[in-house]
Amino acid sequence: MEIWVNPACSKCRSAVSLLDEAGAQYTVRRYLDDPPTAKELKAVLKRLGLEPWDITRTAEPIAKELGLKTWGRTAADRPKWIEALAEHPKLIQRPIITADDGTTVVARDPETVRSVL
What we know:
This protein is α+β, with helices and mostly antiparallel strands. It is about 40% helix and about 10% strand.
């Protein structure tokens, strides 16, 4: 299992605590220091069953600078969104947990974290 975290994020710290309490074996990926590639993002999105705009933090200052709220949300726009997430990992919603069985979640609440255990 791998969890993508930003250590400054309270939801990430909470998710890590829940994994620790459960005795889960996992790897921490500080995705701001080790950003996912476009290929990795595509794989995670496929596992999540989501589109890139679904995991984008549109309130971030960089999102406003890029004008993300005005970007299209069609299949043709998908590559542009993925590139933006790869270039600016701060835009990625967190934490994301990828379990060994293929389950992948955006673990923003305790119930979702527990769903991968």
